[in-house]
C-alpha cells in the first residue's frame, strides 16, 4: 500500500501538481490587502505583516486561503467569508481542526478565531476524482482513514443531531427572507416541499450518526511528500450521516463513476464486512440525493444574498438537475 502512495506522489511531483505548488508571480503585496484583512492577518499571526511574505493559494465562496512565509517557517491562513456562516456557527469553528490535529489526521493548528484559522503548512497534493478510481492503494488508504474518522467520539460542543438539517433550515430561512433569483418554475416553496419530503424519507431510514468530515470531496484530502494522507477544510465537520462523506467521493452523476469502484471502496471501508457494505451502499444512494439538494440550496441562497451571477445560477441549475436525477434513480416518481 505504501509503495502505491509513493508512486502516486512521484507522479504528482513529476507533473508539478499539488494544492500548494504556488506560482511566485502571484505574491500579494502588502498594500493590496484591505485594511480589515490586514487586521485579521496580524491578529491571527500575532505579528506585523512587515515580517512575512504572503502568497494566495485559493479563494472560494466560503473562505480565502493564503500561504504565509517568515523566518520561522511557513503557515497556512484561512479567512472565513460571510457566506460560510450559512453552514457554520462561530463557536464551533476550529473545534474539528483541533481535535483531528491532536490525533494527527489533519494539519496542526497554531491560532484560531471566529474570523480565521492558522494551520501548519504541509507540502503535498490534493486528490482528484480520478485518483480514487485509478489508484487502488490510495483508495484503500482513504477508506481506512475515513473509517477511523467516523469512529471518533463526537465532541460535546456539537450535540448528536446531524448538522445537515440545521444547514438546510438556515439556507431555507435565508431564501424566505430574501427572495432568490431562480429559474422559471422553481420557487422557494417548491424547494421547501422537496426538503421536507426528503427529510421524512431520510429520517425514516434511521441511519447512524457519526463524526464526519462534512465536505469530503477528493480535493479536501491531501497526500504529503512522505505519502501520508491528511484531512483538510474541516469547517463542516461534526455529527452527520456517514453516507454523506462516502458518496461525495463517488458521485454517481460523474462521468468517472463506476459501480465496481464504489463497491470495492465500501468493502474496504467496512473491513470486508459485506453485509455492512451493502447497507452503506443503500445509505450512500439516499445521501447523494441529500448532498445535491444541499448544494443546490447553497447556490440558491447566494443569489438571495446579492451574489447573483450567470455562473451562480448555472451552478444552481446543475445541482438541481443532479438532485432530481438522483432522486428518481432511487425512488419512483410519485
UniProtKB/TrEMBL annotation:
Q: Name one Pfam family in it.
A: Choline_kinase
EC number annotated for this UniProt entry: 2.7.1.82
Gene Ontology process terms (BP): phosphatidylethanolamine biosynthetic process
Example of a GO MF term: ethanolamine kinase activity
Extent of the signal sequence: none
Give the top-level enzyme category: transferase
**How is this protein annotated for GO cellular component?**
cytoplasm
Cross-referenced Gene3D superfamilies, in alphabetical order? 3.90.1200.10
Pathway named in the protein's UniProt entry: Phospholipid metabolism; phosphatidylethanolamine biosynthesis; phosphatidylethanolamine from ethanolamine: step 1/3
InterPro entries for the chain: Kinase-like_dom_sf (IPR011009)
Family classification: Belongs to the choline/ethanolamine kinase family.
Name under which the protein is recorded: ethanolamine kinase
Q: Which organism is it from?
A: Ostreococcus mediterraneus
